[in-house]
Amino acid sequence: MRKIESLSYIAALSSLSCAFAVVYPAPAVADETVVIGHVAPLTGPVAQLGKDNENGARLAVEEINAKGLVIGGQKVVLQLDGEDDGADPRTATQVAQKLVDEKVVAVVGHMESGTSIPASKIYSDAGITMITPSATNPTLTRQGFKNVFRLVATDAQQGPALANYASEKLKIKTVAIVDDATAYGQGLADEFAKAAKNLGIQVLSRDTTNDKAVDFHAILTKIKSERPDAIMYGGLDATGGPFAKQSAQLGLQAKILSGDGVCSDRLEALAGSAVDRVVCSQPGASPEKMPGGAAFKAKYQKRFGHAMEIYAPFTYDAVYIVVDAMRRVNSTDPAKILAATPATDYRGVTGETKFDEKGDLRNGVISIFDYQNGKKTFVDQVTM
C-alpha cells in the first residue's frame, strides 16, 4: 500500500511539474553577441575628440548590457568594436571594410566628414546602418545612400548660423577666410562664405592651408595688411588653436570665427590668451540645453575620470538608436535594423531624434560659444 501511495505521490509531482512548465515560459536560453562598430581618430592631433566619441558609445553599451537586453527571445550582449581611422580617408575605407567583414550590425561614426564620406559607400554596399554623431558636410547625405544617418545639423546650417551671429551680434563688416583643405574645413568655410556675402559681409580674401600645418605666419601676415574685422577659420582645434595664437602674436585684433572642430575645451591650451577672441559654432544643443545633458556629464565624469569633450552625448544616443531599431523589429538582422532606422523617433540625452528623407536630423540646432577667461561659454542657440 505504501509503495502504491509513493508511486501516486511521485506521479502527482510529475504532473504538477509539467503544469508549471506550461504556465511559465522558458527564459532566454543563450547569449547572442552583437557587435556595433565605432570609428574615429584615436591617434593623431585630434585623438582626444575621437576617444571622447568612443567613450560615449562605450558608456551606452555598458549600460545596456548591465540592464539586460532580450531580442527575439534571446539574451543579447552588445560588444563595441572601436576602430581608429587616424582622420585619414584611405584608412577609413580600410577600417570600414574590416567592420563589414566582421559582420557588425551597425556603425556609429565616422567622426569627420572627410572619413565619413568615403566610408559610407562601403557600408551602403553591405547594407549596414551608419550613424555619424558629428560629420557635418552636406555631401554625406546627398549621395543617395539609404543607410546613412546624421545626429547633428549640417554645415549648410552651421555656416549660415555662424555668419548670422557674426553680422547681427558682432557687427562684423569684413572677413578673411582660411580653411584646412579637408572636406569638413573647406565645406564649412564655403557655406560661411556664401551666407556672409548674402548678409553684406565683405569677404576680403580666401586662403587654404592644411590639417597638419604648424606655421601660419605667411597667411596671417597677408591678412594683417587687409585689416579684417574677423578671420573665419575652417578646421580643427589642433591647427585652429595655433592659428589664433599666431594671429595675436602678429598683432591682429580680428575676432577668430570657427566651427565645431575648433570649439573644444582644450582650445585655451592651444591658443593661449588669444582664445578669448574666438567665437565658434557647434551643431547640436549645448549640454546645458540638452534634456539629459547634466546627468550625462556626471555619468561620463564618473566612468572615465575626466570631463567630456563635444560629441560623446551623440555617440551615446546613436547606440541607443540602433538598439531601439532592434527592439522595434525584434531582430538583430542588419537588414531589418536598417529598414527600421528611417522611422526612428527616439528621445535621448540630446533630445528628440527624427530623420528626414536624406537621413539628416529634423529640427537640428546650432549652438554659439565664445571663450571668457579661457573657458568655453555658451552664448546663443539657433533652431534650424
Automatic annotation (TrEMBL):
<keyword id="KW-0813">Transport</keyword>
<dbReference type="GO" id="GO:0006865">
    <property type="term" value="P:amino acid transport"/>
</dbReference>
<dbReference type="InterPro" id="IPR028081">
    <property type="entry name" value="Leu-bd"/>
</dbReference>
<protein>
    <submittedName>
        <fullName>ABC transporter substrate-binding protein</fullName>
    </submittedName>
</protein>
<keyword id="KW-0029">Amino-acid transport</keyword>
<keyword id="KW-0732">Signal</keyword>
<dbReference type="InterPro" id="IPR028082">
    <property type="entry name" value="Peripla_BP_I"/>
</dbReference>
<feature type="signal peptide">
    <location>
        <begin position="1"/>
        <end position="30"/>
    </location>
</feature>
<dbReference type="InterPro" id="IPR000709">
    <property type="entry name" value="Leu_Ile_Val-bd"/>
</dbReference>
<dbReference type="Pfam" id="PF13458">
    <property type="entry name" value="Peripla_BP_6"/>
</dbReference>
<comment type="similarity">
    <text>Belongs to the leucine-binding protein family.</text>
</comment>
<feature type="domain" description="Leucine-binding protein">
    <location>
        <begin position="33"/>
        <end position="358"/>
    </location>
</feature>
